[in-house]
C-alpha cells in the first residue's frame, strides 16, 4: 500500500479554512427567514465548531447553527436565537446575536490566538490535586487571569485521601500561603464525599466553572454534586502519569439549588503569553503595596539593586515561592516566540 503523504501545517490550515467556508455557505442556505419562528433569549450550554446547544427560557436544549455575524460564542454566553419551524440534520434553530459579556475567561492558543473559554462567570474553582501532580504554577497563572477579569477565584485541593506524610506538608505549605494572602482554599475528596458541602454552598445562585489540569477530578466532583449527570471520568494514565483529557468541551449545567456550573476540559499548561508584564504584576495581589518603591523606575524585580519586592521577600512579607513563580511567568513572556501573534 502506498504510504500516505503527510500534509504540511500550511496545507492543513488551508483545508480547514476551505472546509469552514463550505460549511458557512451551507449554513447560510439552510435557513430562510420564513422557516424561523420569533426571536427568543437563551444561554449557551456548549459550543462545538459550527454548532452550539442553547438552553431556552423554558429549559429545553436546542441544537443551533450560528449566524456568520456572530464572531465569538462560548459556553455561558447569553444569546438571541430563533427556533426553526422544523429540524434539519438534527439542528433546530439559529443563534443570531450574543449579548454583551459581564466577564470572560480566556487563554492563548498556539493556533487560534487568544481564545475565550467561558463567559459570564462569577467564580472559578481552580481544582488541583496530588495526582497527577500538585502544580502551584498553574494555580498562580489562573490567579493572574482571575485578578485581571474580576472573577472570584476559589482554590480547591481534591483527592485529599491520597495525601501521605511526604506530600501533605509540602502542599499544606503552599495552600496556607494562598490563605494568608486572602484566597479561599477548600480541601475535598470527591471519592469519599468529603468537604463537598463547602463547594455546594458556594455554587448556589452563581455561575461557576471548574478548571485545572487534566485528571485532577473536575468531572468526578461535578458527578458528586449532581449524580444524575453521570459524566465520563477516566483514570490518570499509569504510563504517562498524566490525565487523559477525558472532558473535551466545556459544558454548562443547571445547579439544582440555583445557579450554573461549567465543567471544562483539563489543560496541560496555562499560557499567559498574551499579557504584558504590567498585567502579570497586577495578578500578584500581595505584591501591590511594594510596586513603585524600587530604587530604579525600570526595575525588573530580578536581582536589581534596591528592589522593593526582593526586600519584601527578604523581610518575610512576600513568599519566596510566589516570587519565584512570578519570575517564571515574566520569563515565559520574554521567551515566547509566539507573542507577536497576539498583538
Ligand atoms: N483517590 C481519589 N481519586 C479521585 C478523586 N476524585 C477523582 N478521582 C479520580 O481521578 C481520575 C480523574 O478524574 P476526572 O474527573 O476524569 O478528572 P478531570 O479533571 O475531569 O479530567 P479531564 O476531563 O481530563 O480534564 C478518575 O480516575 C477519578 O476516579 C478523589 O477525591 N480521590
Ligand atoms: Mg473531566
Ligand atoms: Zn524591583
Topology, pairings included?
Elements: H1 9-30, E1 40-48, E2 51-56, E3 61-66, E4 78-88, E5 91-98, E6 104-109, E7 113-119, E8 123-129, H2 136-149, E9 152-158, H3 167-180, E10 184-187, H4 196-203, E11 207-211, H5 218-225, E12 251-254, E13 260-263, H6 277-282, H7 308-314, H8 320-335
Parallel strand pairs: 3-5, 8-9, 8-11, 9-10, 11-13
Antiparallel strand pairs: 1-2, 1-4, 2-3, 4-5, 6-7, 12-13
Helix pairs in contact: 2-8
Order of helices and strands: HEEEEEEEEHEHEHEHEEHHH
Q: From the 3D coordinates, which CATH architecture of the largest domain would you assign?
A: 3-Layer(aba) Sandwich
Uncertain residue segments: 337-343
How far apart the termini lie comes to 46 Å
CATH class of the largest domain: Alpha Beta
**What coarse outline follows from CA principal-axis ratios?**
globular
- Placed side by side, the strands forming the largest sheet appear as 10-9-8-11-13-12
What percentage of amino acids are in beta strands? 15-25%
Q: Helix fraction?
A: 25-40%
Amino acid at each position: 500500500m502506498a504510504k500516505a503523504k503527510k500534509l504540511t501545517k500550511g496545507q492543513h490550515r488551508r483545508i480547514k479554512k476551505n472546509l469552514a467556508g463550505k460549511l458557512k455557505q451551507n449554513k447560510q442556505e439552510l435557513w430562510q427567514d420564513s422557516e424561523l419562528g420569533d426571536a427568543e433569549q437563551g444561554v449557551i450550554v456548549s459550543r462545538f465548531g459550527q454548532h452550539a446547544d442553547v438552553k431556552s427560557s423554558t429549559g429545553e436544549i436546542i441544537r443551533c447553527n450560528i449566524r456568520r455575524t456572530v464572531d465569538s460564542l462560548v459556553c455561558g454566553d447569553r444569546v438571541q436565537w430563533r427556533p426553526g419551524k422544523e429540524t434539519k440534520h438534527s439542528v433546530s434553530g439559529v443563534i443570531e446575536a450574543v449579548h454583551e459579556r459581564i466577564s470572560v475567561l480566556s487563554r492563548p492558543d498556539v493556533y487560534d490566538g487568544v481564545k475565550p473559554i467561558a463567559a459570564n462567570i462569577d467564580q472559578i474553582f481552580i481544582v488541583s490535586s496530588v495526582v497527577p501532580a500538585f502544580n502551584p504554577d498553574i494555580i498562580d497563572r489562573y490567579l493572574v487571569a482571575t485578578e485581571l477579569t474580576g472573577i472570584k477565584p476559589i482554590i480547591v485541593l481534591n483527592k485529599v485521601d491520597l495525601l501521605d506524610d511526604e506530600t501533605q506538608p509540602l502542599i499544606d505549605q503552599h495552600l496556607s500561603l494562598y490563605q494568608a494572602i486572602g484566597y479561599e482554599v477548600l480541601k475535598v475528596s470527591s471519592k469519599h464525599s468529603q468537604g463537598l458541602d463547602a463547594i455546594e454552598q458556594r455554587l448556589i445562585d452563581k455561575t461557576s466553572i471548574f478548571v485545572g489540569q487534566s485528571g485532577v477530578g473536575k468531572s468526578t466532583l461535578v458527578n458528586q454534586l449532581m449524580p444524575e449527570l453521570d459524566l465520563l471520568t477516566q483514570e490518570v494514565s499509569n504510563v504517562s502519569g498524566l490525565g487523559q483529557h477525558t472532558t473535551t468541551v466545556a459544558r454548562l449545567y443547571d445547579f439544582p439549588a440555583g445557579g450554573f456550573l461549567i465543567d471544562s476540559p483539563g489543560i496541560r499548561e496555562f499560557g499567559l503569553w498574551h499579557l504584558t508584564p504590567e498585567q502579570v504584576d497586577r495578578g500578584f495581589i500581595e505584591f501591590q503595596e511594594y510596586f513603585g518603591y524600587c530604587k530604579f523606575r525600570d526595575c525588573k524585580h530580578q536581582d536589581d539593586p534596591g528592589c522593593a519586592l526582593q526586600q519584601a521577600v527578604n523581610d518575610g512579607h512576600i513568599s519566596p515561592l510566589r516570587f519565584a513563580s512570578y519570575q517564571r511567568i515574566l520569563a515565559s513572556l520574554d521567551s515566547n516566540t509566539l507573542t507577536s501573534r497576539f498583538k
